[in-house]
Design a protein that fits this description.
The chain has 343 residues and is mainly beta. Helices cover 10% and strands 32% of the residues.
């Protein structure tokens, strides 16, 4: 069963073990120096985790999701139990690492710079011993592991967010003498074409006509992430006129909180759709419309008034493009230098 972990683990390095460090310091087979109690069996080290990005939609984060997928991973050979050899066969010391299981290697860290590091022996896979060709396990060919195909299931809780981690414990590749690591999926949300998210809250734009803005309306204004239509009643003259850019908050219609029935809020930004110029040509009621609408403010008074032309198709994207850069000019440029008079 998958487990959910929204954090990023502790500050200790994966695989660090106190008994292993004490064994290296004091050379004790039991892992504890004298005076620290009786010997205990050493805990196997944990293998590396496998990190994968997982794309999810905002709808899936809102409703939650369960997904199944097939995974191919290495498992301990069932025939030789991870030894790599036939029954009763005895391995010999690895000649490449002299039985240590590790080797010293050089790694480039920059132009002309190398550092020495300890790496697992590629010949014996860190075991320190190998089998002759005739003594190797017939199933795993001495590799100690075989491939297995398994169907895994992940569960994404409703209300999850980008960056959350879905952890499948112990489902990474198995390595002999080690505890298998985890498969970790890091959630990455794809961009939504309607809704925007900020924590538990959602925002979106809704469009109303000029008549609805002035006279009110009662209809579904948006379809939510779970398919529900949200109906808003905005009657007049009880409510005021909806203005372009005005924001309506619908409490409790945002993203759900994980492990809770609470939800955030939904913020709807109003966009008023004005009629185009053809509407004025088709209707001859402009005089009546002027009588119904509020009268204009008092005209601006100026001593000098100029009639100007305008372009109603302009865009602010062109704002500033007509500016000319003025180069600095030396006032003395071009003037002749003074010369000494001839005696």
């Amino acid at each position: 069963m998958s487990a959910f972990d929204s954090g990023h683990g502790s500050g200790m390095e994966a695989g660090a073990d106190l008994e292993e460090m004490l064994q290296q310091m004091f050379g004790m087979g039991g892992g504890m120096p004298p005076g620290f109690g009786g010997a205990r069996p050493q805990k196997p080290r944990k293998g590396s985790d496998e990190e994968h990005p997982y794309q999810v939609t905002l709808e899936e984060l809102y409703k939650g999701k369960t997904a199944k997928f097939a995974s191919t991973k290495n498992v301990i050979c069932s025939h030789c139990k991870g030894s790599g050899g036939k029954e009763k066969a005895k391995p010999k010391q690895c000649a490449s690492c002299q039985g240590r299981g590790v080797k010293q290697g050089l790694r480039s860290v920059g132009p002309g710079l190398v550092t020495q590091e300890t790496v697992i022996c590629s010949s014996c896979k860190g075991k320190g011993s190998v089998y002759n060709q005739k003594d190797r396990c017939k199933k795993c060919k001495g590799e100690r592991v075989t491939e297995e195909r398994k169907v895994l299931e992940i569960y994404i809780p409703r209300g999850s967010k980008e960056g959350d981690r879905i952890v499948l414990e112990g489902e990474a590749d198995q390595v002999p003498d080690q505890e298998p690591g985890d498969i970790v999926f890091n959630l990455a949300q794809t961009e939504h074409n309607i809704f925007r998210r900020a924590g538990p809250d959602l925002s979106a734009d809704i469009e109303v006509t000029l008549a609805e803005s002035l006279c009110g309306f009662s209809r579904v204004v948006i379809k939510h992430l779970d398919g529900r239509g949200l109906h808003i009643q905005h009657p007049q003259p009880i409510n005021r006129v909806l203005e372009p850019g005005q924001v309506i908050k619908v409490a409790g219609e945002g993203m759900p909180h994980k492990k809770s029935e609470l939800k955030g809020d939904l913020y709807l930004a109003v966009r008023v759709k004005f009629p185009d110029y053809r509407w004025l040509e088709e209707n001859q009621a402009l005089s009546k419309l002027k009588e119904l609408l509020p009268k204009p403010e008092k005209p601006i008074q100026a001593d000098v008034v100029d009639d100007v032309t305008y372009d109603e198709t302009a865009s602010l994207e062109d704002f500033g493009e007509g500016a000319e850069s003025e180069a600095w000019v030396d006032e003395d440029e071009g003037e002749a230098e003074p010369q000494c008079a001839q005696q």
